[in-house]
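re: that chain from earlier
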Amino acid sequence: MSTTSVYTGLWVDHNRSGVNRYQLLLDDYWIGIVTNALAIFITTASGPIFQLLIGPLSQLRRKISSRRNNDQQDQFEESRSFGDSMGYVLQNLRHVGGGYVNIPIYGPAAPKRTIAREAFGTGLMLLFLIGVPILLDVVSIFSASLGTDSTALSSSSKCGSYIYKPDSVKCSAKFLEFERNAEAEAAFYAMSCYGSSSNSDYCTKFYNQSISYPVGNNVDCPFAGDVCLGEEKPAYQLSTGLVSGSVLGVNARNPFFFSRTMTCSAIVNNENYVNISHSSGGFDQWEYWYGRSLSNYTWANPVQESLWDIKGYSAGIHCSEPGSRTAAFVPLPEFTAGPYPVMLMFISSHKILYPQIRLDPVFPAQSRANFPLGYTGSLKYYHNSTRATVLGCVDQYLICKDATGPCWTKENITSIPQAPKNRISTEEENVIKLLLLALDFSSACGSTQFRGVEALNAQSKISHMQSQDLAPEQWKVEVEKFFQVSLARIQLNAYDIVRGTAAAFNDYHNILPARYRGICNLVAIRTVGWKNLNVMGLVAAIFCITLLWIFSWKVKDEKRVDTFIVTLLWRNYLRKICLFTRRS
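^ sequence. v structure.
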């Protein structure tokens, strides 16, 4: 099924270089017709080429040997095709190292130098006569390569930025359904297409398979207070560095640059922030006081293990929104990071057995498990407390006009260029708006808030009551998984905005201002059923073949002699230009 809502016809792909930017998007049917017609047109050039070459080849034949008769020379010059002329050349070959068949057997032997000259010249003629038709066939076959790829500019009428606004005050069962689906899709895409060389069809959904990033680094604690666990440089940071907006398919003269950075660390969970309290349900619970949430405390979980003997992890995820008056979570000052959003993930393990002792501050296991007499299996270890460990992350982004600046972050975002309400946005303003929208939800919070504990790589390694062996610093593995999902979310956001994906969900409304509608034709996507044709390649091929035909035509010169047009051009114009250039 072909992709719909794409811009067809002539367009400029700014992500290509030079004249290759000009592309013609046609469906597969018309691409086949055009390339096949071009291949046939190329093969018709054999006649003009032969007409133009027969004269020079005849002169070459005169120079390589004087041992021929006029009849043979006339036959060669009057031949009408490559096949005929090659036949006359082959008739004149005697045998390897010999002369021509019309030489008397008892005549004087030709000098070796003459024979070598004849053999070389004859070979050169054969090369022309055999090579040119083959070359034309090869060129006609490669004409199909003028069809470049299936990239096209999106042109959907549903393009926009959508928010959830239910018409009724009642809570819908499909509350924030689009955001939930987007997080799940980004997670699945990251799992399938990041960190691998997969070539599956699913990994070709976006303009580029992935957004690359280097290996992470250990850095200082990103929080305002001394709340990170560990000694020197206790945090782990992953960053893309500056990446061109073209990686998202942004098709503009200046696609701008952006970067995404995530810095995470294991967080303290001592008595200053965690205590035991009696819940309204009649059981003891751990209460975590890291900032105001829906209750006075941030999160809570039972002290006692579940009577249902559940094996696995439980998690609570809390995300800050600096500057928002309606934020669901407002962290304590020591857990803030200036204007940047913070995510705290509380992770509690429940009767999970590990094959080795674990010193990981987020996934610890230092108590040896006891088994009944007669147990002959390997040693197992577990974490002997339901008190949650805490993983905290800070997210940052950067948008730059070019690699040298100017740049904008959360700290100076109000100064970023924006289109006033009284005019249509420029291309650069559209690029900025698109990047800002694409970076929304690209965070640790946007990678985990709806999936909860299922966002943990460690959770996927549990089978019944046992965990597979985890990395020594599993928390860093989790951070990288969060980061990969956040990058996939940027790709998905850009795609969903221009395709209007959210329009198919109930209670979602488009709030993209009309002055920014230019972003709807700003992103190139991969398509099915369409293909681009290199316009300049097509024009050049048609021009060259047509020129060969014109040059091979004969007209009367000043002496009323039939002469090739190209010969007249040389005599009257090109030769004079060359002489003038040489003198000057």
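The first helix runs from residue 28 to 43.
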